[in-house]
Amino acid sequence: MKAISYRAYGGPEVLEYGDVPDPKVGPDSVLVRVRAAAVNPVDWKCRAGYLDGALRTVFPVVPGWDVAGVVERAGPAVTEFQAGDEVIGYVREDFLSDGTFAEYVAAPVRTLARKPRNLSFEEAAGIPLAGLTAYQGLTRALKVRGGETVLVHAAAGGVGSMAVQIASHFGARVIGTASERNHDYLRGLGAEPVTYGEGLADRVRELAVGGVDAVFDSVGGDTLQASVDLLADGGRLASIADPEVLQLGGSYVFVRPDPADLAALTDLAELGVLTVNVDRTFPLAETAEAHRVGEENRTRGKIVVTVGG
């Protein structure tokens, strides 16, 4: 099959398009014909070797954890899906080897859910990793409730835009940080936008005089440190970007595959609660360029790689 792979850590230039062996389908997995795969920051962090100390790497690596596609066949123990089913998945292995930037991927059923019927494959591919990260951060780490005020950093990005929509659906008031060019976009998602950068804390305080009940951080560093002073009494802090949040009394969130959570996101999409803005698409052979664009951190929503038709 055709796929993107890399044989050593490095920049986008190490990504190669060509033939790799077809995936083997275990008893608890299904073979998915990939229609679209979203690009996430973790993809280039893995490619650059930043996660080498945490994840075993088996070269050559086919990158990618997000997928939307069609089941070709199911393993002998699988009863959840059958050939022809349209699915989405956060197909993360316990090591780096066989990912989703390929014509086919073998996906354990624990990583999959039914694809939202009202979304295209390109839109649906943007849900799994970003949606699960936002959903698990808001429901498990922050336990956001209706009537609370939630500050979402980098709110126009893939995870941030999901967090805005989910928190708004829960009945929370959402303040989202973004560049001024994305303010109208955030208003459309249900957030009150504020510009990031110098003076951010003062701008947030003008909107939330008594402080915010929860902060969902995807930036880390100084932004995370400054967020502590924006919390109301009893406020909660969670970060997906900076483990130092633990030293500040908050929660560090690293997303996990969870079929129940993924199914909940499918339901939200079909209710019209959750939408995916596909910023740009690239064909599989141009995945290296998709990585380059993504690393600029100027994306509104998701970058998606398309496979076949």
How would you portray this structure in words?
With 309 residues, the protein is an alpha/beta fold. The protein folds into 2 domains: 2-127 and 276-306, Alpha-Beta Complex (Quinone Oxidoreductase, Chain A, domain 1), CATH 3.90.180; 130-252, NAD(P)-binding Rossmann-like Domain (Rossmann fold, 3-Layer(aba) Sandwich). 27% of the residues lie in helices and 31% in strands. The chain has 9 helices and 17 strands. The chain has helices spanning 41-47, 121-125, 128-141, 158-169, 183-189, 200-207, 221-228, 259-270, 287-295, and strands at residues 2-5, 16-19, 29-39, 56-62, 66-74, 86-90, 95-98, 104-108, 112-114, 149-152, 173-178, 191-195, 212-217, 231-239, 251-252, 278-283, 302-306. The strands form 4 sheets. Strands 3, 5, 6, 8, 9, 16 and 17 form a 7-stranded mixed beta sheet that branches. A 6-stranded parallel beta sheet has the order 12-11-10-13-14-15, with helices on both faces. Helix 5 (183-189) links the parallel strand 11 (173-178) and strand 12 (191-195). The chain starts with a strand and ends with a strand. The mean pLDDT is 96.
